[in-house]
Specification:
Length: about 240
Amino acid sequence: MLWTALVLGLAGSFHCIGMCGPIAFVLPIDRSSKMKVFFQTFLYHIGRLISYSLIGLLFGFIGKGLYLAGFQQRLSVLMGVFMIVTIIIPISLFNKYNFSKPLYKIISKVKSKLGFYLSKKSNKALFLIGFFNGFLPCGLVYMALIGSVSTGNSFQGALYMAIFGLGTIPMMSAAILLGNFVSVSFRTKIQKVIPVFVVIIGILFILRGLGLGIPYISPSDAKLQLSNNPTECITVENDD
């Protein structure tokens, strides 16, 4: 299901322009030569990919803990349902309970660091801007993190988030190189379609967890079934 991370990244990159575009437009890139522009843009993206991967590593570890606790294939179903529910529930309800309030102090520090490095012109600054940019709160990143949890593996979780980040690179690079080239009305239309993609991906996660035996979509987990039935692992000895 790693390919769903790429779909989320590509489809959601228009959303990224709206959220992270203001940062991309004011990056302190040295535009004296094309080589410097491309290299510093690359550093910015590498910083984002590293922060996404670190978060994915953590959430993949959480997913592993849930998997070992007995959720097994049900973990994928749970994450898929969670994806769909977060789309169906009005955003006003989330804002009412303000679930991210405990993170405000951390987010404030991240924004402070971003502001500091945005005023600097160096390769190090571009890398760190990307790095701290990856930790900013974003609904689409949250969806990708749900996917990383469902992998049930730290490495896979990090890889899932890295692939998600790769999906955002084309549009974010265009924003850096070309400026605000996407009209507000077009971005609004795309953002209305993004929830549809998220719901589809949520359904795919549910199907995957159900183990219906559908190749690539809902493969059966025969190994899991065998591990839960130790009587099937009896070695038969033949007498000579």
